[in-house]
Amino acid sequence: ASKGAGRRRWQLFSHLMADDARLEYQVYRELPNALASQALFLHYQPQIDLATGAVIGVEALVRWRHNGDGFWMPNSFIPIIERDAALSRQLGRFLLHSAATAIARWRSDHYAFGRVSINICARHLQHSAFLDDLDETLDRYPGTAAYLTLELTETQALADLDKSARVLGEVRKRGIHVSLDDFGSGYASLQHVRELPLDVIKLDLQFVQNLEHDTEAFAVGYAALTLAEIHGAKVVAEGVEEARVVSLWRRLGGEVIQGYFFAKPMGERDWLDWLARYRPAARYAEIPRWRPT
Ligand code: C2E
Ligand code: MG
Ligand code: MG
Ligand code: MG
């Protein structure tokens, strides 16, 4: 019986492997075309400042439109792209260009969107051509820097800490903000994170969603807020779905929220409609802040 179970497990495993290999092959083969033909496109999710209720930013999240079976979500294909420097760079250049043109469109239509955040792969950030790619976009679309934020995941930033810190320093010199994504999900020591030049720290959704009931999640959230104070950075809680977490975050001293509670990621038309209709609610500012004594 145990032999049969073992074989079944192996079959399942080999199916998954075959699917992975097929997907990987497809991504390599189709990404350039997908980028050119707008099969890759962005959804947008707002970030709200609790003190004022204002929209202070919007994260651009990539989707892949596929013939026949709808969208591919990024968790399926981004890990494949992230392993390869050339693919990471292709995606990154697409994101820079898409963000810059979106910023130009939205500014000319007088939308108050704050900054646009894009997710950059470490292999692009650490590519020798990264700053050239960035400057090419900034030269072509002057004024973009003040409306742009680059997000980099904690694990990726720490893969080559010295290099990341140096490049991110250059990024900030241009007036672009730097955001540390998925804080708490890796194994970063606080000391290491301290060495990165940062404007924003994003508390990973797994901690945000457990803030209420899990002491460890609470501790990680508190660490993010403490670290942010040292940096003069803001902390974004990502993945907030419930009103109770909004007030808890505010009581803890957290300032910014991104999550389904306010809005899901939306196509550009829906996002701009949402933004045009959005009215800040003052009630979050009235929640008293808790401070340790
Ligand atoms: P991330 O950058 O941490 O993005 C946040 C993810 O949390 C998004 O998933 C978003 O839709 C989801 N989310 C936001 N609010 C809530 C909520 O209240 N509840 C729940 N359950 N989820 C929420 P998405 O769009 O599937 O993206 C997943 C990840 O894929 C991103 O995590 C990022 O690491 C990667 N990714 C997405 N777009 C890009 C991109 O353009 N470039 C790169 N390099 N990575 C990307
Ligand atoms: Mg992100
Ligand atoms: Mg994140
Ligand atoms: Mg994530």
From TrEMBL:
Chain segments annotated as coiled-coil in the UniProt record: none
Domain EAL: residue ranges: 24-279
Highest taxon in the source lineage: Bacteria
Protein name: Diguanylate cyclase
Organism annotation: Acidihalobacter aeolianus
Lineage per the UniProt record: Bacteria, Pseudomonadati, Pseudomonadota, Gammaproteobacteria, Chromatiales
Range covered out of full length: 576 to 868 of 989
